[in-house]
Design brief:
single chain; 166 residues; mainly beta; Elongation Factor Tu (Ef-tu), domain 3; SH3 type barrels; 2 domains; 6-stranded antiparallel beta sheet; 6-stranded mixed beta sheet; 7% helix; 47% strand; elongated
């Protein structure tokens, strides 16, 4: 079973064993759900309650009902089973996306060197063609994502990806 990191436990909340998870995982709505399984230190924990509060995912696990019972989990990474994610044809995890080839409408081929966030909602692909090009992931430049072929078809604007002539 392949596990993917979905967040980190940053603190407790209250005295009833609720934990705060800081997560920038894009598909939180599929992960933080009552009766779903989270993995911490390769041990499975069932979500008994969940709510979103400010920038945190607030979760109680298994039968932990007291703050003292969950203190051992502080500062630990939280994982989810990749097989349990139900992603649509256009949804791809960053871990998978980094292995995709990038094809342009001009027939150029490139590879993704890095994926980073320019802001909490703007993902940027750093693609190496003949030169490096930054492509916003949620832009009209991304025409098609083919998960079976592991390819992304992009339409570069004029001047992007062209060789500079000195």
């Amino acid at each position: 079973m392949l596990l993917i990191k979905v967040g980190k436990i940053v603190s407790t909340h209250g005295i009833k064993g609720e934990i705060k998870i800081l997560s920038s995982f894009p598909y939180k709505n599929q992960v933080f759900v009552v009766d779903k399984t989270l993995y911490i230190d390769n041990k499975a924990y069932i979500i008994k309650s969940y709510r979103h509060h400010k920038q945190f995912e607030m979760v109680t696990l298994n039968d932990y009902k007291d703050i003292n019972e969950v203190l051992f989990l502080m500062k630990k990474d939280v994982f989810f089973a990749k097989d349990d994610l139900q992603l649509s044809a256009q949804e791809v995890l960053d871990e998978d996306l980094i292995t995709f080839k990038v094809l342009t409408n001009q027939g150029k081929k490139g590879i993704i060197k890095e994926i980073f966030l320019a802001s909490p909602t703007n993902k940027i692909l750093r693609v190496l063609f003949d030169k490096e090009v930054l492509i916003p992931f949620n832009s009209p430049m991304i025409k098609k994502i083919d998960k079976t072929k592991k390819e992304i078809l992009v339409e570069l604007f004029e001047g992007l990806g062209d060789q500079d002539e000195d």
